[in-house]
Design a protein that fits this description.
This protein is mostly helical. It is about 75% helix and about 5% strand. It is built from nine helices and two strands; from the N terminus they run E-E-H-H-H-H-H-H-H-H-H. It has helices at about 20-25, 35-50, 55-90, 90-105, 115-130, 135-145, 150-165, 165-180, 185-230, and strands spanning about 10, 15-20. Strand 1 and strand 2 form a beta hairpin.
């Protein structure tokens, strides 16, 4: 902040005086011509002192933005906490709505990344409880995109993949968990349990492809035979 020093002048003997002290010895305009001139100069100096510095619009904008972000953070947290209460009461649909409110209020800014990732993960567990596994995967993926090391989101997405018999995808999530936490015994046991299922499903898909290919060949041969007979 710029500090404006009082105007400084000198008396007839050369002593330094502040503007207020100098004005006390001035003559008024009615008392003499020279005094009137000096009084005008003093008024001009006083007017310069009273001039306010220009407002910094950028500072005001930054301050307003900070206030808006803080307000949004409070509202989003309140909605998230309400969602947690509803989830604890097994009111999953209502909890989903509150988490969505929190996401709508919280802007997509770096300072809100953690809050947004948690809300997506919480929506995912609601969908998991409701048996909506595709939606669970979508919400977990959004949470992981915001926070790649979000363990709970990886676990829940793995569970949803397993429910849908996406064994390869479930194993991939479990391996990511082991990369983040090599001592996670639960992830190790789940991989051990799912790998045979994944292998079995691969074999089943191969057989289905073979059957499908055989069926197509049979249909083509039958069609060709019909055309030959027709000719």
């Amino acid at each position: 902040m710029v500090v404006i020093e009082p105007a400084i002048t000198k008396d007839e003997e050369g002593d330094v005086m502040t503007g207020r002290e100098a004005s006390d010895g001035f003559e008024t305009a009615s008392e003499g011509t020279d005094g009137g001139s000096d009084n005008e100069e003093q008024q001009q100096k006083q007017e310069k002192q009273n001039v306010s510095p220009p407002k910094d619009d950028s500072y005001e904008d930054a301050s307003n933005n900070d206030e808006l972000e803080q307000k949004a953070l409070v509202q989003a947290n309140d909605a998230k906490l309400e969602g947690n209460k509803l989830f604890a009461a097994a009111q999953y649909e209502e909890a989903l709505s509150q988490y969505e409110v929190a996401l709508q209020v919280a802007p997509n800014l770096p300072s809100f990344v953690e809050l947004r990732s948690v809300c997506h993960a919480n929506r995912a567990i609601c969908f998991l409880k409701l048996g909506k596994y595709e939606d669970t995967i979508k919400e977990c993926t959004k949470a992981i995109e915001l926070n790649p090391s979000y363990m709970k989101a990886l676990v829940r997405r793995g569970e949803a993949h397993e429910k849908l018999e996406h064994f390869e995808e479930a194993i991939a999530d479990l391996k990511t968990i082991l990369e983040l936490d090599p001592s996670n015994e639960q992830a190790k046991r789940s991989i051990f349990r799912l790998e045979p299922k994944a292998a079995e499903k691969r074999e089943q898909m191969k057989e289905e492809m073979i059957v499908l290919g055989t069926s197509k060949d049979t249909c083509l041969r039958a069609k060709n035979d019909h055309l030959i007979m027709k000719w």
